[in-house]
Amino acid sequence: MFRNILVPLDGSTFSEHALPMAYSIAQRAAANVHLVRVHEPLASLVPVMAGPEPGPELEQWNRGQAEAESLYLRGLADTATREVRVSARLLHGIAVDALEVDAQRIGADLVVMTTHGRGGIARAWLGSVADELVRRLKLPVLLVRPTVDAPRPCGEACFHRILVPLDGSLLAETVLEPAVEFARLMGARLTLLQVLPPPYFFDSTEATYAVPKSAGAIRMRDDAAAYLGRIVGELSGRGVQASSQVLVDSRPAHAIARFAQDQHVDLVTLATHGRGGATRLLLGSVADKVVRTAPVPVLVLRPRAAN
Asked: Is the residue at 241 inside a domain?
């Protein structure tokens, strides 16, 4: 159950695209929304200009900047819908460190933020604060892809169709619980998806891939279908609408993003790693690529078993 939703902002319109989704979730879950912005003193960024000790001009600028950032947050909180409990506060320090501490302090069970903010559309999505938070926090992080348009309300429900990619591992299945929570809150339907590596051989003459109809390949697909079917049955027993699909593709992230687009999925939920194990790097993983390419918001969860 979501009780405390943390929404990091950086003062940009892009970062505010997370607000409608956070408010919609909070309204349905009766959760608290915590709007936060991190003030990073300029002295830490320009030590040469500041000298050994920050000068009075720099200290005055920092105070003024912090006050402006506080006013910005309070303004957003004041304009939030009255049906949601919203608080706003300014944090101080290095952004990721401050956000991690604050998430622990308030007992956050969900973070909602855009994949990038101040840097704009051209900024690399991962390698940002969002990426580092996904690495550190062992709680769901809902990443919203902003557009050039102003943020718009979600309406009655943000999500109707939720895609849950799995790979057969217990680590990957940890994302099922937040996915089920969203399904219940929004009255959404889950689709479980497993992408299998193709038993292809390359025909250099035709420059195409051919699929051998081997007994092993058929058995692998049948095993995946049975695995997903078992989970669908368990979810149905819990009152959650769910279906399953097995695909064969050498590029799992591409297959997931394409399936999400073709099936008009509203949300993709997945663990940061599964079969690759706890030591697998988060960047360069399927989750990283899905966040980069999916046409819809992506909820990412780092399993608690991960190192």
From this structure: yes
